[in-house]
Amino acid sequence: MRLQSLAIAFALYCLNAFAVLQPGDTVPYSCWQNASGNNLCWNETVDVVRVFMYNAGYCGPCNEEMAALIPRVKEYDGKPVLFLSLSIADYNGSRPTPEFLKSWQQKYNIPFPVLAAPRSELAQYDDQPGIPMDIIVDQNGKMSAMVEGYDNGGIDVLFGKINALLKGKADEAPFIKLFPFSSLP
C-alpha cells in the first residue's frame, strides 16, 4: 500500500512538472475581475502583445517594479502592447478586494487595467512561483517569455523582451529569474 501511494504521489508530481507552460505554448483562456466587478478576458485583445504582471500589495519587489514601470510605460503609447496588473493578494496577503484594486491603481497612477487574479494561476507558469512574475504573450496567444522577480535593471529586461517580440525576433533567454522576488505565503 505504501509503495502504491508513493507511485501515485510521484506520478502527480511528474504531471505537475509537465503542466508548466513553455515558450511557444498557447496561454490558457483566462478572465479576471476589475474593481467594478467587470471581467476582462485576455483573448478579447487580439493582435497585441500582452504583458501579464502578477503582483501583490505585500510584495516589496512588486511595489518596486510598479514604481519603476509607470514612468516608462508611455514608451508603448500607440504600440500594440497591453499591460495588465494582475493582483493575487492585497497588502496583508488576503484575496484582493475591489477597494485594494482601486488603492493599488491610485498608489502608482496605473494607466492600464488592474485586476484580481487567482493565486493558483501562477502554477501554470512555474512549479515554484515567486512574484513579481511578468508573462509576455505574443500576438498569437503564445507564451513568449517570463521574467520572475525584480531588480534595478528589471524594467530594461522586461522592455527588451517586449521590443524583441514587436520586432518579430525570437527570445534567446525566455525565462529570467531576477532577485529579489517574494515567495508565496
Please describe what this structure looks like.
The protein is of the alpha/beta class. 28% of the residues lie in helices and 24% in strands. It contains four helices and ten strands; from the N terminus they run αβββαβαββββαββ. A six-stranded mixed beta sheet has the order 5-4-3-7-8-9. α4 links the parallel β8 and β9. The chain is globular. The two termini are 33 Å apart.
The proportion of residues forming helix, as a percent range, comes to 25-40%
* N-to-C span: 33 Å
Number of strands: 10
- Beta content comes to 15-25%
Please, how many helices? 4
The helix/strand class is alpha/beta
Q: Low-confidence segments, ≥5 residues, pLDDT <50?
A: 5-18
In which order are the strands of the major sheet placed? Answer: 5-4-3-7-8-9
Tell me the series of helices and strands, N- to C-terminal.
Answer: HEEEHEHEEEEHEE
Overall body shape: globular
**Biggest beta sheet attributes:** 6 strands, mixed
Mean pLDDT: 84
Which radius of gyration do the C-alpha atoms yield? Answer: 17 Å
